[in-house]
Structure formats: C-alpha cells, structure tokens
Design a protein that fits this description.
By secondary structure, this protein is an alpha/beta fold. The protein contains 15 helices and 23 strands.
C-alpha cells in the first residue's frame, strides 16, 4: 500500500512508484475523488511514464466503482487535461510527475473548468477518504469512453493565438522525451514553422536529459542546435509540457520575466486596462511595462495556487511566474507552456527583428537568477539579513523577506520542500546586483558554517 500522508502534497500527489504510490492507492484515490467531487463523470489523462498507464487504469477502476463515467483521454500534456476539463465541463486528473525522475509519478487534480484542487480546497478530504477505501473492492458500474482530445486541444490553442499569417520561422523544440513530443506536432501542423525536433520520442526514463528546463545543463543540446541550424529560436518543455523555456537565435536563454512582459503586452492589446498577475521574484520591469501599456499589475506569492487564486479574484487576463509557468484567463485561468510559446512565435513572426533584439525592450534589469543555499537555521539567517539591511530599503514579508532599495531589490525565502534559502536579486546596474547578491550570500553563509 502507498503512503498517502507522504504523497499528498499541498497542491498535488507525487511519490516514488511503487513504494509510495501504487495501484491499490490509485484505485482508492479514484473512488475518493468521485465521492468528494460529487462527480457523475470525470476525465483522465496521463503522461509517457511506464507507471502512468497502470496507475491511471487503477484510478479509473476506483472512479467506476462509485458509479461515475470516465472520459479516458489517454496520452496528454497537463494543459491538454486542463483543456479537457474546461471544454467538457468535468473534473479531471492528470497522471504525471512533471520534471521528476523516472521512478516518480503523481496526480494533478482539478474541478470542472480546470479549477485547481489543493490542500484547502478538497485535496485533504480526498486523501482522508482514500485512506479509508484502500483495499476496499467494489464492482465497476460506470462506463469508459475513450476520446482523442489532441486535435481539439490543438485547434483551440490556434483560435487563441493567430499564427497562420506570420513570416516563416525555423524553430528547434526540445521535448526532453516528454509530452511536448506528443503535442507540439499537432499544434504546429499547417503553420509556417520549420520544426527541428529534439528528443520527441516518448520515454519516461528520460534517456537524454532530465525534462527540466530550469536547470541550465538540460538546455545545452537545444542551445547548440539553435546556433548550428541558424534557427530563429528554441523552445524547451518539461516532462508534462506545462512549462516552456525560450532560447534566442544566439543560443541565449530568455528570462521568463521578459516572456511574462511580452505576453502581458499582447494580452493588454486585446484587453485594454486589464489586470496582469506576476509573482514577487519576477523582474521589476514586468509591473513597469504593464503600467506603461495601461494594465494593472498585481504582485503575488510564488506558487501556482496563489497565481490562480489572484487571477480568479481579480479577473486577470494573464499571469506569469519566473519558473516559466504562464496562466491565461482565456484558458480557464490555467497554465499552458504551449500557449505562451505560441505568443512568442506570433510576436516574433509579426515583425522582422531577431528574437534577441525584440525581447531586449522587456529586459531592463540585471538579475542574479535563483541562488540556493543549504541552511539549517533559516530563521536565524533571515534575522541577520534583516538586521544588516535595516534602514537601507523598504521591507515586506509577503513571501520570505523582500528588501527594495534605490535601483535594486532582493527576495530571500525558504523552500517549501528542502532546507534551503532561495535568493533572487536584481538591480539596474550589474555591479550593484552582484554586490547585493554577494552581501546577502555572505551573511547566509556565516549561518550555515
């Protein structure tokens, strides 16, 4: 039996298969999901991991035992599952462990309309009910309908971003053996895009590199191929293809903050005066650019649950995170790496400049990127940093400690899962950014010694 207490996280289910997550556990979760959601029908999709099919089938058995019908979408990306939930009006479950190693798997759950389910919005109840149902067998009563949702997903995205009229583009896509290899060909079909695919073979063992574009070493093959092939840009997707990282024609990474600002400008052209959400470690340039284009920037904590909650509260048209997650009101407030990529392709293809020149206007500051430090006494480290910067800037503690001075800021916050402090620093001047970053790291380092 799996370990329910360990695998149910704040916003999803994730664990090692079969030690922490096994088929009897998945079956119990399926039954509990239907009960807690009060669902007559649910939609299920899964990624390419070897364990995904048996786990999804076990979940379906549990759902059927509670008299629910199941729309089985089969292989899909996480944003395809959100499309299914939104377009069909059904609660849904995606079997994936995103960018985690092959031995992991998990479930991302949502209510009808792709509304996320977290610990405070139903996930705890599902966990507790599943614990009561593990090992309880019941006769399947509901029916299963297998439905290929990929064509509808691709067509829906193409209605949100017009790409048929752009200039021809050469694009390299690294799917990392993940679900981008399944969805990208369908979305790009018939568009003026010359596609060079890297690692499109679906393989949950990730034989080429981890499907995690946030780690620079996983981008090396893409960067080299973009330069060698003379491509206009490169795109890297994570394992379940809900995150997208952009590489310019020089093989350089484009900051997710710049992508957030670029997409925000495009959405504000469509919805003048709208609200744009950004988390507190995106660049200062994001709210500046949003205001300059008549929008209303709203700052949130780091994490998709906070982004989605603020989008729902404010009616925001778009939200961006520095982790390369991008959220769209037109996509049921859910995140879609593919939709963000399409906005970048449209913006690039509607004019003649190379990507590096086009995004320069959205990159106004020098950033440290996220720097992690292993610290056993995180509270003491934060206390010492507060003390060192007292009187030197404005403090806020929305998420960790943010200090904002004249032309610079930094945020130091604890990891939710590891004994780490995460630092992000930014300044108008590269030397100032380096000085602030190094000063904070020196203080933190003294605590960890």
């Amino acid at each position: 039996m799996g370990d329910l207490a360990k695998i149910f996280k704040a916003y999803d289910v994730r664990g090692v298969v079969p030690d922490e997550l096994d088929e009897p556990t998945a079956e119990a979760v399926g039954a509990a999901f239907v009960e807690i959601m009060g669902a007559e029908s649910v939609v299920v999709a899964h990624d390419m991991r070897e364990s995904s099919v048996p786990l999804a089938e076990a979940f379906i058995r549990g759902a059927l035992s509670r008299r629910a019908d199941v729309v089985h979408a089969g292989l899909g990306s996480t944003d395809l599952l959100y499309y299914a939930s939104g377009s069909l009006g059904l609660p849904g479950v995606m079997f994936t462990a995103s960018h985690n190693p092959a031995r992991y798997n998990g479930m991302k759950m949502c209510r009808s309309g792709a509304v996320p389910i977290g610990g405070e919005t139903g996930l705890t109840e599902i966990r507790d009910r599943a614990a009561e149902l593990v090992g309880v067998t019941a006769t399947p009563v509901g029916s299963v309908i297998e439905k290929d949702l990929l064509p509808g997903y691709a067509e829906h995205l193409r209605t949100l971003v017009e790409l048929r009229g752009i200039r021809p583009l050469k694009v390299v896509v690294d799917a990392g053996n993940g679900m981008g290899g399944h969805t990208v060909p369908a979305v790009f079909e018939g568009l003026p895009i010359e596609l060079t695919p890297l690692y499109f073979e679906l393989d949950g063992d990730f034989p080429n590199h981890e499907a995690n574009p946030l780690e620079p070493h996983n981008l090396v093959d893409l960067q080299r191929t973009v330069v060698e092939s003379g491509a206009d840009l490169g795109l890297a997707f994570d394992g379940d293809a809900d995150r997208c990282w952009v590489i310019d024609e020089r093989g350089e990474s484009v900051s997710p903050s710049a992508i957030t600002a670029l997409v925000a400008v495009r959405e504000l052209a469509k919805y003048p005066g709208a609200t744009i959400i950004h988390n507190l470690i995106t660049s200062l340039g994001v709210p500046e650019i949003v205001r300059e284009h008549g929008g209303v920037p709203v700052r949130t904590r780091v994490g998709h649950s906070f982004i989605k909650a603020e989008m729902a509260r404010t009616g925001a048209v778009f939200g961006g995170e520095h982790s390369a997650h991008y959220y769209f009101r037109d996509f049921w407030f859910a995140d879609s790496g593919m939709l963000a990529a399409m906005h970048v392709l449209a913006a690039l293809g509607e004019q003649d400049r190379p990507l590096s020149e086009m995004v320069a206007a959205y990159s106004r500051y020098h950033s440290s990127g996220e720097v992690n430090s292993a610290v056993s006494d995180q509270g003491e480290a934060l206390r010492r940093v507060r003390e060192a910067f007292a009187g030197r800037g404005d403090f806020d503690e929305l998420d960790g400690l943010t200090v904002t001075g004249s032309g610079w800021w930094f945020n130091l916050r604890t990891s939710n899962t590891e004994p780490l402090l995460r630092l992000n620093a930014e300044a108008a001047d590269a030397g100032m950014m380096s000085a602030i970053r190094d000063e904070v790291l020196a203080i933190v380092g003294k605590v960890s010694e």
